[in-house]
Write a structure and sequence with these properties.
The protein has 190 residues and is an all-alpha fold. The chain contains 9 helices and no strands.
């Protein structure tokens, strides 16, 4: 049973991370600035992993400190995830970062560990426990790391347009998950 929870949680986190978007960003920056891809990817994963661990360990404590209920956080997180999903589906870019010194940080957050991942990790810990959240986060990071490290080969195999198509499909799933979060959060108030 725990294995099924870990697998489904990992898939959900990978959907939120959307490695296709991170890969498209990484390759686009690499074309103009010739960055060291292995070094940049490793640093981005380290930043993302540290943030994931922070949200798993003290995310709910932060909510308590700021007097935010889990229901309210579900609604707020659901709205943010909805915006991210719509952004993916429509191919909108709300912000653009290209400063060479901050590329790994930008890929680490908000692209890998953004609001959707933070919300999901806190909810996973609350619903399924610390171990499931931690193992799922580690697996999702490992999958993302491999995807980004072999990104140039993946792009040659699939093509840039297919990467964007996959990103749009993932965006549809995110909007559905966001709607579910908003409904669950609203139910907790009634």
């Amino acid at each position: 049973m725990v294995l099924v929870e870990i697998i489904s949680s990992t898939i959900l986190l990978v959907a939120f991370i959307d490695p296709f978007v991170s890969l498209a960003t990484l390759l686009s920056i690499h074309q103009t600035q010739k960055i060291d891809i292995p070094k940049t990817v490793s640093m981005a994963i380290a930043v993302a992993g540290a943030l994931m661990l922070l949200f798993i360990l003290i995310g709910t404590s932060l909510l308590s400190f700021f007097n935010i209920s889990l229901g309210a956080f579900k609604i707020g997180g659901g709205l943010v995830i909805l915006i991210l999903g719509i952004q993916n589906v429509l191919g909108l870019e709300l912000s653009k970062h290209s400063e060479k010194s901050a590329i790994a940080v930008v890929i680490g957050t908000p692209l890998i560990t953004g609001p959707g991942v933070a919300t999901t990790l806190m909810l996973l810990k609350a619903k399924q426990g610390f171990i499931v959240a931690l193992v799922s986060a580690a697996l999702a990071l490992a999958i993302t790391w491999a995807f980004l490290m072999f990104g140039e080969k993946i792009e040659k195999l699939l093509g840039r347009q297919m990467l964007l198509v996959f990103s749009r499909i993932i965006g549809l799933f995110l909007t559905g998950f966001a709607a579910q979060l908003i409904v669950e959060g609203a139910k907790s108030f009634f």
